[in-house]
């Protein structure tokens, strides 16, 4: 089995103590950080499918998520860009009622690498807290909201509405598996990105 295949199995089976060494091993062997990341993302889809099929339950999903996060920690310094100019501050969080943070963390990592000063509010972030963070931080140019559940899509809408009510000119970008460009448009967001990589281009376009 290739080193990347090994990592996929470790994530799928939640072997959190072994994953960091495996990711480092793959990097040392010449595998690209981006390929390792994509493999781990694919593993999370497998985990989600198994959950949907009733083959695994919330604790196993949680352990797989913890395992992926440990793998991402090893990739972070490798993927970090060499940025000297700040593009401004971006406030980011996963919206109220939603505890999923892996996608959000990847977006934070990519935007940070691109030159944004990131303020990560974490998960389950009430709409008002995004507004408060815009007030409390300097040079905020972007608010980014992540939502992974169909049931928390209304919370995305609430976050966009609340930020726009307080700061009509503030740019807001949204994303997450159930979000579509049409939904982003419908709730009044300025932009949508399907994944962490494309969030960089969209974020830069919004603040240009
Ligand atoms: Co949850 N969960 N989960 N879960 N979970 C999903 C999302 C689900 C699809 C699984 C399934 O049923 N197949 C399903 C949602 C169904 C739906 O709403 N349609 C689901 C469910 C139902 C639930 C619970 C309700 C389960 C329960 O309790 N019965 C519960 C809800 C808890 C809550 O949030 N209130 C729950 C709980 C959890 C855990 C806590 C156990 C754990 C999360 C731990 C953590 O994040 N620290 C978890 C996990 C791990 C998953 C799956 C398996 C993996 C999510 C993930 O990390 N994916 C997920 C299944 C799946 O995704 N296929 C699932 C990898 C990650 C890189 O992708 O987050 O999509 P993603 O991010 C992507 C893009 O979406 C995008 O960029 C990233 C890639 O580059 N992106 C943005 C994300 N945010 C963005 C913002 C942007 C731009 C792009 O701009 C601002």
From TrEMBL:
Highest taxon of the lineage: Bacteria
Keywords: Cobalt, Metal-binding
Domain B12-binding N-terminal: 1-87
Entry-linked InterPro entries: Cbl-bd_cap, Cobalamin-bd, Cobalamin-bd_sf, Met_Synthase/Corrinoid, Meth_synthase_dom
Entries under Pfam families matching the protein: B12-binding (PF02310), B12-binding_2 (PF02607)
Originating organism: Acetobacterium tundrae
Statement: the UniProt record of this protein carries the keyword Phosphoprotein: no
Protein name from the UniProt record: Cobalamin-binding protein
Location of the B12-binding domain: 87-208
CDD domains recorded: corrinoid_protein_B12-BD (cd02070)
Keyword Metal-binding applies: yes
């Amino acid at each position: 089995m290739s080193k990347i295949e090994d990592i996929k199995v470790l994530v799928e089976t939640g072997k959190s103590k072994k994953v960091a060494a495996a990711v480092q091993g793959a990097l040392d062997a010449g595998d690209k950080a981006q390929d390792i990341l994509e493999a781990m993302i694919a593993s999370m889809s497998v985990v989600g499918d198994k959950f949907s099929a009733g083959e695994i339950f919330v604790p196993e999903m949680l352990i797989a998520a913890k395992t992926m996060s440990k793998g991402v920690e090893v990739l972070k310094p490798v993927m970090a860009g060499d940025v000297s100019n700040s593009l401004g501050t971006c406030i980011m969080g996963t919206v109220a009622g939603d505890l999923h943070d892996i996608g959000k963390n990847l977006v934070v990592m990519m935007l940070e690498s691109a030159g944004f000063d990131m303020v990560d509010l974490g998960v389950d972030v009430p709409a008002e807290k995004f507004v408060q963070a815009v007030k409390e931080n300097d040079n905020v140019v972007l608010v980014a909201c992540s939502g992974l559940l169909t049931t928390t899509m209304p919370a995305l809408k609430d976050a966009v509405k609340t930020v726009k009510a307080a700061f009509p000119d503030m740019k807001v970008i949204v994303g997450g598996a159930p979000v579509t460009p049409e939904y982003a448009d419908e709730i009044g967001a300025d932009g949508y990105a399907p994944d962490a990589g494309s969030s960089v281009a969209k974020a830069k376009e919004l603040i240009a």
